[in-house]
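Report of the visiting student (M.T.), summer placement. My assignment was to run the structure pipeline on a short list of targets and document each run. The first record concerns DNA polymerase IV.
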Amino acid sequence: MRKIIHIDMDSFYASVEQRDHPELMGKAIAVGGSPEGRGGVVATASYEARKFGVHSAMPSKQALKLCPHLIFVYPRFAVYKAVSKQIRAIFQRYTDLIEPLSLDEAYLDVTNDKLGIGSAIDIARQIKQAIQDELKLTASAGISINKFVSKIASGMNKPDGLTFVGPSGIERFIAQLPVEKFHGVGKVTAGKMKLRGLHKGADLKKLTETELINLFGKSGRFFYNIVRGIDNRPVEPNQETKSISAEDTFSYDLTRFEEMNPEIEKIANVVFKRMKQYGLAGRTVTLKVKFSDFKQITRSKSSADGISELDVILDIARSLLAGIDFTSRSVRLLGLSLSNFGHSGGRTAEVYQARLFP
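After the run finished, the structure tokens were exported:
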């Protein structure tokens, strides 16, 4: 059995800002966005802000309504990348099998750790303590025998949490897991599941593999395996991000550009957030459109310079959308992706895709 740890930094960008600016400690802050509420989205919110309902990818105008005393801080991505490298160096004391998901989270395979500690729980504790002592930041850890469970576990007791789910407890753990916590289950799919009485992992486990595939396509096979604790994906170090994308399936079909425009804005905000997490700048924006008859088209546009601003992504997405003839056709899904990156921060063959409402 593998020993896998998922480390997730606690409110990473906001915590770095509070550490570097003591006057912000204990205050509700948002990294990114606009203090006047004129535009932009929150990249990360401190835990003090989260108590008011402020969260990442939220428009700053909405964040201000929820928390009028919210302090907006301009993001310093170069600093966050530097701190991320320091965190990676701590990981490397224990293992070389490190798969980063973004600047603030990673999987570690410590089945055969460098220091011969043996206990994944002890290793996770030592990593958390080193991050606290050396960087003055906190992290949460999930420990299990596969990636799916360790990632879910790391979010169970935030901040500064440590959650272990052993082999004998995995199926029980997944049985109680709400369906919206499963990878690939977005808002629409979760609603579809709940209409069929599928609210938790235990409900999914009652269905056969064929039934799940008929209901949810190829994701059905993943659901069938995961509710039985089966996830054989290895921790894959040195991967390169080839593209970052987000998409959303709508509860009703869209027919007019005026309906699609605000949806494209939401999707672009998610892509922009992920792009900043990776510290990347792409050159190609691709629009994906799936019609009500399930026919699908894509349209792309490239720039000679790296695209690193939300407004540029939105302008390109809108121009691509405006160039499509929607006469007598309605839209059930829209998606955006950013690719053709100028640098990858050392990662070397992954396609990252996020649903709008994971």
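Residues 343-358 have pLDDT under 50 and may be disordered. The longest strand covers residues 241-254. I thank the supervising group for their guidance throughout the placement.
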